Amino acid sequence: VTANVNHFNSYFDYPDSSALSSSMSIDKLLPALLECFGIILCGYVAGRANIITPTQAKGLGNFVSKFALPALLFKNMVLLDFGNVIWPFLWSILIAKVSVFFIVCVLTLIVASPESRYSKAGLFSIFATQSNDFALGYPIVEALYQSTYPEYLQYIYLVAPVSLMLLNPIGFAFCEIQKWKNQGNRQQRKLLIMGLVVLQVLKNPIVFMVVIGIIAHFALHQTIPPFMAEFVDGLANSFGGAALFYLGLSMVGQLGKLTRSTVVTLILLITAKLLLMPLICKDMVDLLDNSNTSALNHSSLSNYAFLYGVFPTAPSVAIYAVYYNAELEVVTSGMVISTFLSAPIMYVSAWLLTMRWMDPQLLMNSLQNVSFNISIVSLVALVWTITVMFLSKKFKRLPHMFTVNLFLAQFLTCFGMILWNFVVKEDNFIGQVLTFTLLCTSLYSTYVWPGLIALSLVLMKSFEDVKVSPSLFVIAGWGVPVLVTAVLLISGEKMPDTIDSAFFYGKPQMICTTVVVALSILLGGSSLVCLNRGSWAHNDQIQEENAAEDLVTEVEPENQTLFEPLFFAIIIRFSISNLLPPSGQCGNRCESTDCLLVQVEELQQVADRQVPRHVLLCLLLTVSLLANLSSCLWLLLNPVPGRLYLELQFFCAVANYGQGFLSFALFGLDKHLIILPFKKRLYSLWYGKKQEEQTDLPDEVRMTCTQFTKYHKDQCFHDIVKKRRCGKRTKVDCFLGCELVEWLQQVGLAQDHGEAVLYGTRLEQGGVLQHIKQEHSFQDSRLYYLNQDRNMSCQMIIHVQ
């Protein structure tokens, strides 16, 4: 068998493959998952349909957390058999949880703002380490190991107190410190704060009953007295279904609280919970469980540790967030997302671990086909994205110039993989080496560019007056991959008959990949941390908006200088002749291409640096680099990587050759080039005929327009309108959309931002408002609109934020 086949065969190279596959029962896993998530779905439907109100759901939650779960823990603590416990496994899980807790806590303290630093550190650390062990984890472990390793079930009750009694109090202490810092009078002593934390932990019924259960274990000799056995059993048995149902109830409306500002935090927390935690748990068992003489049992414990690490976050973390009134949006949304992401990970992992045998050649072909198919689709997405970047002319600005280089590297990576799929099947050494050179260089370039883009954002933030040199970044982004590939080609030795491009040069290629990926993670991660320590993205946007506002806002005559130098580069882009449209007033539609308002709109479309999108792109690609680094280290440190490594390798293939999907999602749907024209066309098709007659409009649109025109328009005009100029002698009364949104909420016409935007959309649909060039519908952006029915000397223009 070829070397590469032997590599894949090592996934299943265990002392007794049939015995290993029988150590878990996959047949019961799918019914267990369907049972758990079916009950969760029932709870969600009941909450969404308001069959059970939030107040009633809170009562069910109190029953689960204060009666059912404490009784369950007490029962199992009494009956626990410490003689069959493999203690190195427990120490491994303990070290893994403490490690993740420490990593999340330290990073949060470094990155978070001072006004909420400690509360975030406490809650986020608890989020990443407290698993839903009993409601969701126990049924899955029972389905997998009840018939083979029933003693594994009791580890759930031994591991859970690690979070409840050791880590959670540390998180609570951070939250109490934040409360103390936020108080005006800091008279409470630190000793008093620690006392409050200890008291809160002891008052927790779960912790209290664990302690009582351990005492009763030795006092009652592992036996529950008959007079109380039925009572304890009744409460304990009620936990399973009630807890899952309550989990579904607690998910209602949580994703709606997710905002753009919490997306980055959420991605990092879910990565720590579903990727970092299981990998560390497995590695710790591999390192510490040396006393286990059975290789089969050692492998089974290692796989069990990985599955345990994938368990999602417990709903009780949301209760902590409510209690401390901190980070509720992140915690609740993360709980929902991690719960549903964990299901496919657990199922695929268990499926791989229970396979009796699979042809290694079939595995290689499957991995190659996955990479090939994803590359084709990703290639199409990248062609679209690169075309949009050039048509929108954003490629001329920083950091989009570097982003285009990243897209080009992704394009070449997909193209190289498509070529590799055909060349590798032919006996053409020169063709294989040339194709590998293209594929390896472009793939390494996709590893390097995220860190360079993040670094460029930091430099533009720290040195706003210093121009970032694009040539140095381009040389680094392409030169480093070329250099590494050249060293690999010169010093490496081709593996015989391999079809996997990741192992074309064997171990030297793994080492090169590890070095490149690790350095890129270090550069990108440190740059993102520095970038997050300020609000530069928001301030940069405010600066651009204020500059554009100064360009069109009327000033007092004694202070007015029509063409005074502006502090932003907007003025440079306009010649004096372009700023002088014909005198007069804007009509129902501005026909002049020299209208200053239109020029400001066009400039703002190009001037947006899209810093949040670049940060999100760099963050997601850094997470995929973390998976690649784990894959390389796993293979280098483990001579027999095991079956779970196959799952990680398939994930890395999707992450490497599917980067085009991320690029397309973040930059391929340009708002002004794609989305707005599409909405305009769709709007004209849907409402084109209806706008001819007011009576054809929907009732809610007509009522909104009538209400606003009759009762609120004059007051709105009086409160927020300012004079702005659109030329040398032309001035208009207008106001910003953000001011309109705020005003609508202040007077009670809208309850929140979304309702305010919807209100403005109805005004535009009813003909009360109209874009100055009739090119856009009402939207949440800096566009100017005319008021169509106000009888005054100059038209009213709405400027939407």
TrEMBL record:
<feature type="transmembrane region" description="Helical">
    <location>
        <begin position="85"/>
        <end position="111"/>
    </location>
</feature>
<feature type="transmembrane region" description="Helical">
    <location>
        <begin position="153"/>
        <end position="175"/>
    </location>
</feature>
<feature type="transmembrane region" description="Helical">
    <location>
        <begin position="510"/>
        <end position="531"/>
    </location>
</feature>
<feature type="domain" description="DEP">
    <location>
        <begin position="733"/>
        <end position="788"/>
    </location>
</feature>
<dbReference type="InterPro" id="IPR004776">
    <property type="entry name" value="Mem_transp_PIN-like"/>
</dbReference>
<keyword id="KW-1133">Transmembrane helix</keyword>
<feature type="transmembrane region" description="Helical">
    <location>
        <begin position="404"/>
        <end position="423"/>
    </location>
</feature>
<feature type="transmembrane region" description="Helical">
    <location>
        <begin position="231"/>
        <end position="249"/>
    </location>
</feature>
<feature type="transmembrane region" description="Helical">
    <location>
        <begin position="615"/>
        <end position="636"/>
    </location>
</feature>
<feature type="transmembrane region" description="Helical">
    <location>
        <begin position="429"/>
        <end position="459"/>
    </location>
</feature>
<keyword id="KW-0472">Membrane</keyword>
<dbReference type="InterPro" id="IPR037368">
    <property type="entry name" value="GPR155_DEP"/>
</dbReference>
<dbReference type="InterPro" id="IPR036388">
    <property type="entry name" value="WH-like_DNA-bd_sf"/>
</dbReference>
<feature type="transmembrane region" description="Helical">
    <location>
        <begin position="123"/>
        <end position="141"/>
    </location>
</feature>
<feature type="transmembrane region" description="Helical">
    <location>
        <begin position="372"/>
        <end position="392"/>
    </location>
</feature>
<feature type="transmembrane region" description="Helical">
    <location>
        <begin position="471"/>
        <end position="490"/>
    </location>
</feature>
<dbReference type="InterPro" id="IPR051832">
    <property type="entry name" value="mTOR-Rac_regulators"/>
</dbReference>
<feature type="transmembrane region" description="Helical">
    <location>
        <begin position="301"/>
        <end position="323"/>
    </location>
</feature>
<feature type="transmembrane region" description="Helical">
    <location>
        <begin position="330"/>
        <end position="352"/>
    </location>
</feature>
<dbReference type="InterPro" id="IPR000591">
    <property type="entry name" value="DEP_dom"/>
</dbReference>
<feature type="transmembrane region" description="Helical">
    <location>
        <begin position="59"/>
        <end position="79"/>
    </location>
</feature>
<dbReference type="Pfam" id="PF00002">
    <property type="entry name" value="7tm_2"/>
</dbReference>
<keyword id="KW-0812">Transmembrane</keyword>
<dbReference type="Pfam" id="PF03547">
    <property type="entry name" value="Mem_trans"/>
</dbReference>
<dbReference type="InterPro" id="IPR000832">
    <property type="entry name" value="GPCR_2_secretin-like"/>
</dbReference>
<dbReference type="GO" id="GO:0035556">
    <property type="term" value="P:intracellular signal transduction"/>
</dbReference>
<feature type="transmembrane region" description="Helical">
    <location>
        <begin position="196"/>
        <end position="219"/>
    </location>
</feature>
<dbReference type="GO" id="GO:0016020">
    <property type="term" value="C:membrane"/>
</dbReference>
<dbReference type="Pfam" id="PF00610">
    <property type="entry name" value="DEP"/>
</dbReference>
<feature type="transmembrane region" description="Helical">
    <location>
        <begin position="261"/>
        <end position="281"/>
    </location>
</feature>
<feature type="transmembrane region" description="Helical">
    <location>
        <begin position="648"/>
        <end position="669"/>
    </location>
</feature>
<dbReference type="GO" id="GO:0004930">
    <property type="term" value="F:G protein-coupled receptor activity"/>
</dbReference>
<dbReference type="GO" id="GO:0030514">
    <property type="term" value="P:negative regulation of BMP signaling pathway"/>
</dbReference>
<dbReference type="GO" id="GO:0055085">
    <property type="term" value="P:transmembrane transport"/>
</dbReference>
<protein>
    <submittedName>
        <fullName>G protein-coupled receptor 155</fullName>
    </submittedName>
</protein>
<dbReference type="InterPro" id="IPR036390">
    <property type="entry name" value="WH_DNA-bd_sf"/>
</dbReference>
<feature type="transmembrane region" description="Helical">
    <location>
        <begin position="29"/>
        <end position="47"/>
    </location>
</feature>
